[in-house]
Amino acid sequence: MSINVLGTSIYSPYLTYELTLNLKKSKMLFSVNKNMLIVTLLYVMLLTINGQTTNSSQSDGGMKIPLYIGGLLPFSGGWDGSGLVPGIDLALKHINAREDLLADYDLKIVWNDTQCSPGLSSRVFFDQIYREPQKIMILGGGCSVGSEAIAGTAHYWNLISLSPTSSSPALSNRVKYPIFYRTYPTEQSLNPARVAIMKEFGWTRVATIHENYELFSLTVDDLVSELKEANITLISSESFVDNPKNQIESLKKQDAKIIVALMYADQAQRVFCEASKLNMTGEGYVWMIIGWYLNKWWEVDFGQLDCTKEELTEAVGKSNYFAIRSQGLSSTDEVTIGNVTAREFDEYVKDQLGNNPKYSRLTFTIEHPFGYDAVWAIALALNGSIDVLKTTAFLDGRMRRLEDYTYDDKEMMMVFFESLARVSFLGVTGPVSFEKGDRVGITIIRQLREDLLEHKIGDFNPVDVQDPLRWTSDIVWPDGKVPLDHTPEVIITTVILHVTVGQTIFISMCALAGAGILLALGFLVFNIKFRKQRYVKLSSPNLNNLIITGGMIVYTGIFFSGVDTKLVSFNFKAVCCQLNVWALSVGFVLSFGSMFSKTWRVYQVAAFKTPKRKVITDQLLYKMVAVLLLIDVGILTAWQVIDPMKLVVKELYTRDDPATPNQLISPYIELCESDYIIYWLLALYIYKGILLIFGAFLAWETRKVTIEALNDSKFIGISVYNVIILCSIGVTVSFLIGDDPEALYLFLSGIIIFCNTVTLLVIFIPKIISVWKYPAGESISATNTTKRSNISSSATNQSVSIDNLTEENDVLKATVKELTEELEVKRQES
To answer: Residue 475 has what DSSP assignment?
Structure first.
């Protein structure tokens, strides 16, 4: 609603004003009712005559002639533009105070509320036309939909409309809106800034999503052209009416990372809600949204959402979106055409809205500077038309003055139109000029920060051809890096890793094995040097040499099992596989076969108590060892001929490289294998198991032999125990760590070295101690004499049972036999 008072500018959208002629419906303009038509025409004539009379009387009286602007802005409805009024009133005050500008005229404005409605905008436009006074231009509408309704009709009345806040690209259509101007840049004018940002960061893949309104659809159409010229690929352009869920999912599937979102604030909430569900609002994503939303627009209650307020705030907050809008209030301190700075103007408007009762019911809007500049543009255009009107010969031969304008005067309208196109000045929104009716202005780029406030980070000035994009602050990225425009095509490299025994472990084990060999050689030297010493001689030094030889062969298996193709050739490693098995198997048989052979001779002497002497020579024992060795060699030879060992490569599970991103490690190991290795190993285990059982049996049967030089039963027991227990553990563990060559080598080598070394030590250390204590071998006779004395003393001094005496008698007989055997051995050797 409006109040029109001649010679004043009054805003009162809340008062009711009844028109003398109530045109409730636009179709009444074309009513077939003859009487109504006559009444309407008479009313228009009266208004025209009244206007002419008023103008003439004011002009003749020497007073300033009023020029009226029709003010059509929304003071309610979808968008409240009432906050423009204080700035517009200030512009009128500044203009009318100027002596060099419209000197003979007083510029005034008559308001109507369009409520951001296209239908109501048309109605109040007709109201302005058919009510006096004559309007020279229209300031409005505020909303794009209202401006489209007004501008689409105003040109039929030769009435220029200039909007301070309409941004729809549709209004740039010079066919539909031939005489429309605006001081608010179009949404399309922001596209060069958007493209410049994309080029700045090297983004060549982008997507758009927009609400299905012409305002946004046309902006996207223009953006598509801009992107094409910039060689930027538009991977997807999504539009929606109410629910953007499917469109957001589509963007996710198409790997959209740089997204331009154009929509009203209520739908922006829905978009960010759905995007957050797909983790599309944080690291790796860039959102470019409209910059003219209300402060903290995500907190405004527009209706039901699928997200809570907290979830939406979190989604928006971590997006660090770019808000792109036309520059509102200029950021410079330059003095504008109204002799005020932008800051002074802003302070004045805020003060008026807060303290002036006249404006107490108005709502502040950040677009308020555009109203001030719009009025100045109209004033400058009219002022520039004065001299043109004085020098232009019109079709009727008369010159014109501004107050001579009527809705039928197309010639004067064209003068105004061309003058407006030439307008250029510094306003509170920055430099103001027009290109085909559209404002050429600066674009402001803001970014949302952690404090949930939008901070200016740059601007874009299309007039500056050399460097239009200017950054004024650092850009904050969620992860500290510029996001890519696509999910990185991760190139996974696979490193083939030969897993083998570490050099340190191999050298350490070989050193221990070498030390074992040196120890065995020391025992061999001792055995040879003291072979005639009685204690050593009774222990069968020749068989002892075989035991030592077997031990040294076992040690060499450590060297064969640890080498790999990093040290030797592939073929030689295959040979080492066979040598390792031979060394362990043959060395075991030599050592334990010789040990058991010696014990078997003691067993034969001690177990079979016959008057006839039983002579068992070393040659017979050698034959026994040879038979045992022959069995072992037979198994190994058959294995090598029928199913030879070969070196095979086994690939292990591929895993991520913890030290290098996007790299996999594909480890492999080299194994000594044969087709039926399990059966061959089983044959060797059974054979050597029988041998160990036989040795354990001999050790048990000879445990009562009292001549220590002859009886190794307790040492055999220790050796057999170690071998059985540790080898059982070794076989079990080897199945568990078979894919870890280093651990397997370390574990098995440790067991082999330990068992072999313990066996040599328990056999030869007692002999070394005996030789060191009794170099001439006296200990044997002394020991036996002592034993016999002890036995006699026991028989004399103690009362013993018949069984004990019998047992002692058997021991004495065995001792006699042993001594007899010793003499026989000496005789044979001599």
So the answer is: P
